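Subject: for your reference before the review

Hello V.,

The reviewers asked for a structural picture of the protein, and I figured it would be easier to keep everything in one thread rather than splitting it across files. Below is the amino acid sequence we used in the manuscript, unchanged from the supplementary table.
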Amino acid sequence: MTDRIAAFIDGPNLYHSVQSLGFDIDLSRLFQFIKQQGTLLRTFYYTEDVPSAQTLLDWLDYRGVVVRTKPDKERDVGEDRRKSKRAWAVI
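And here is what came back from the structure prediction:
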């Protein structure tokens, strides 16, 4: 019997984590590593719907990753400033 695996990736959290550690992550190698652990059934990538990420999202989609986006909710915090709410838990 083989282990069946589903990968769930929180895109913004992954991005900010590796950025704060000062290195890059090769998603192709990450997916290869996951596949070595068992049968990869599906990979999900969750992120906000921002234009700057479109190239990455297209690349992920081309490789069979299920991309889930949500609109970036903003609210007014006064003094002509806006703050984004980026929690997936509210969906």
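For the response letter, the relevant points are probably these. The chain has a mean pLDDT of 84. The CA atoms of residues 29 and 35 lie 10 Å apart.

Happy to draft the paragraph if you're swamped.

O.
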